[in-house]
């Protein structure tokens, strides 16, 4: 089973969309194995977005992600990384398909509600950055036999 890192950004938290977003991943059949409601430190934000350090929007991105609490999550399931990207939708909400989180609730790129790992390697890096091993719970939901052969 793959694992992916998903973060509901400050705008998603402030707009009261946490339950709706969690529901979409649960309804799809993925298993929640880690969850934190937290303030993001400057250091963690810079480590997470290090790939964008030289981009002109880096400073604003760090200011935004540290401005209000986020919900950091780890979801598990077959193909969860790719499926999560489909559930989330395009980075620009105006280009995101209806039925995706960003397509249904997003308005601008700078306030696009949610982050999801873009590859298995990225997911592993992000999970290790945001969660200690002992903060993740391996468990089998009773519905799992109805989801996987």
Tell me the number of helical segments per DSSP (H or I, 4 or more residues long): 8
Estimate the helix proportion, in percent: 40-55%
What's the N-to-C terminus distance?
13 Å
The largest sheet, given as strand count, sense and whether it forms a barrel, is: 4 strands, antiparallel
- Class from helix and strand fractions: alpha+beta
Number of strands: 4
pLDDT under 50 segments (min length 5)?
none
Protein described:
- With 149 residues, the chain is an alpha+beta fold.
- Helix content is 40%, strand content 17%.
- Strands 2-3-1-4 form a four-stranded antiparallel sheet.
- The longest helix is centred in the N-terminal third of the chain and has 11 residues.
- The chain is globular and about 45 Å long.
- The model has no long low-confidence stretch (mean pLDDT 97).
Main attributes of the structure:
149 residues, alpha+beta, 40% helix
Give a brief rundown of this model.
The protein is an alpha+beta fold and 149 residues long.
In terms of topology, how is this protein built?
Layout: E1 2-8, H1 10-14, H2 18-28, E2 31-38, H3 42-48, H4 58-65, E3 70-77, H5 80-88, H6 101-105, E4 114-116, H7 120-130, H8 144-147
Antiparallel strand pairs: 1-3, 1-4, 2-3
